[in-house]
Design goal:
single chain, mainly alpha, two-stranded antiparallel ribbon, 5 helices, 68% helix, elongated
């Protein structure tokens, strides 16, 4: 195996493990009440804890599936494994994390806030970092999978 494939596997592994570790705390979240609306003269409480828990289970599933594909067939340079990871990244992981980045931010000082202050800016910055690691990992490994092999 080439060094490029090892580096790409390391980048993908770091990003998938980060997804796994960020998804586990979502499973034990308490009741979240995001908003209370007045509808027809009565209060309607909107609870979102079940959605957070479902996204936690989805994150764990995607990370486990990606790690299994990464360490068994991807390491053997099977072409379907590269396509499976690409589909996993572009269809499941990247769109769900990109939704968090669509929250309107007040300006470029979000990068300063993301580094030095906890909260939504840091989560958005970490999401952007791990998605970039996955894309770089897939791009680095592409020549090893699509180059013609000597028989």
């Amino acid at each position: 195996m080439s060094t490029r494939l090892y580096v790409s596997m390391a980048l993908l592994c770091i990003a998938l493990l980060a997804l796994l570790f960020y998804s586990v705390p979502m499973l034990t979240v308490g009741p979240l009440i995001d908003r209370i609306e007045v509808e027809g003269g009565r209060f309607v409480r909107m609870r979102y804890d079940h959605l957070v828990q479902a996204s936690g289970y989805a994150g764990i599933t995607f990370a486990a599936m990606g790690l299994l594909i990464l360490f068994i067939p991807f390491r053997k340079r099977e072409l379907w494994a590269w396509f499976a990871l690409a589909i996993l990244v572009f269809m499941y992981i990247f769109p769900t994390s990109a939704i968090r980045l669509l929250v309107p931010f007040p300006g470029w000082h979000i990068f300063y806030q993301g580094v030095f202050e906890p909260g939504l800016p840091r989560n958005a910055l970490l999401t952007l970092l791990f998605d970039t690691l996955m894309l770089i990992g897939l791009a680095l490994s592409a020549p090893d999978f699509f180059r013609k092999r000597a028989s």
